[in-house]
Amino acid sequence: MTAGTGELTFDHLLGLEGMDQTRITALLDLSQRMKEIGERPLKKVPSLRGKTVCFFFVEPSTRTKMSFGVAAKRLSADTMSLTASGSSLKKGETLLDTAMNLQAMGPDILVIRHRAAGAPHFLSKHLSASIVNAGDGRHEHPTQALLDMLTIRERLGRLEGLNVAIIGDIANSRVARSNIFGLTTMGANVRLSGPATMIPKGIDQLGATVVPSIEDATDGADVVMMLRIQKERMGSDLFPSDREYHRQFGLTKDRLRNAKPNVIVMHPGPINRGVEITPEVADGPNSVILDQVTNGVAVRMAVLYVLAHRTGGAK
Ligand code: CP
Q1: Secondary structure of residue 140 in the 3-state scheme
Q2: Smallest Cα–Cα separation from 189: which of 226, 170, 217?
Q3: How would you class 56 by CB atoms within 10 Å of its CB: exposed for 0-12, middle for 13-18, buried for 19 or more?
Q4: Partner of 146 at 20 to 30 A CA spacing, among 14, 19, 35, 76?
Q5: In terms of Cα–Cα distance, which of 229, 104, 225, 99 is closest to 159?
Q6: How many angstroms separate the CA atoms of 120 and 136, rounded?
Q7: What is the DSSP letter of 282?
């Protein structure tokens, strides 16, 4: 792979807040080129030969962890992996001590998921490796938003001017926050809806519009993005029951009728089937949920490529 990184030189990928249109576009363009590698009979290039990528997942993950792993292998990087349950975090070692010990083994890039917002930012101040935020608490999940934008652009040809409805547990969603940053920067109109208890105060100041009902959100929508209810982040119940939630905010075939005819339906996964979305819609003709997963590999290849070829040191 001989993709030039051009304006894409950066030391860490911590979030999409503050990332400008030129950089997002360049990352999406590079991801599109990376995707082509995954479509070849021999899905491997030597671009990251001799580089080591460390995966440090302190929260569970299927899609993000596996796709970063596939991305690193397609670029010929060496990998090392640590999860919370199998680590000395269980014996009381601190996050920083754990990370410094991983650093001592010489990884070039450290991909971290952590329940605490800001954990990747904290490590980026102490480690010389490039840090990638693979999801930090309720804060950001930048590669998810990039793969979502790649999927939208691929299906609908653009991001600017599109009506994107993001529906559900906005309060607990790092996916929503990263998408609000990315999509509004790219000129999309973002509408948010969910139970009042799941709409954080001041979220509209990020450039999105809050609307009261799912019908208001989906009206004329080009994209409907459903969010998982994140019970693991709720101190107490934010809605009476799953059935009640589904009745008010679940995406059904009927509720999709007021969207544009070629609307695409997205979900970052994992899905609570029958709660935020019916199986009929999740698996239906408008769904691009598995395309999102495929595009996740391409986006993560692009991010690893850029960080491995950065010109300056991370510190
Ligand atoms: N979308 C997402 O982050 O999925 P995982 O939690 O399975 O990585």
Answers
A1: strand
A2: 217
A3: buried
A4: 76
A5: 225
A6: 7
A7: H
Half-sphere exposure at residue 49, Cβ-oriented, CA atoms within 13 angstroms: 5
63 lines ligand 1 (CB under 6 A): yes
Regarding pTM above 0.85, the answer is yes
**Å from CA of 144 to ligand 1 middle:** 8
Query: How far does the centroid of ligand 1 lie from the alpha carbon of residue 58, in Å?
Result: 13
Residue 269 beta carbon below 6 angstroms from any ligand 1 atom: yes
Q: Is the CB of 179 under 6 A from ligand 1?
A: no
How confident is the model over 9-58, as pLDDT tens digits? 899 999 999 999 999 999 999 999 999 999 999 999 999 999 999 999 99
Q: Which amino acid makes up residue 12?
A: H
Whose tokens are 């003709």? That residue is 285
Q: Is 201 exposed, middle or buried (0-12, 13-18, 19+ CB in 10 A)?
A: exposed
> Residue 131's closest CA among 119, 149, 117?
119
27/120 Cα distance (integer angstroms): 20
> Residue with structure tokens 């576009």?
25
Using CB atoms within 10 A of its CB, is residue 207 exposed (0-12), middle (13-18) or buried (19+)?
middle
Distance CA 55, CA 79 (A): 8
Give the separation between CA 104 and CA 79, rounded to whole angstroms. Answer: 15
Residue 257 and residue 198 in contact, taking contact as beta carbons nearer than 8 Å: no
Residue 307 CA to residue 315 CA, distance in Å, equals 13
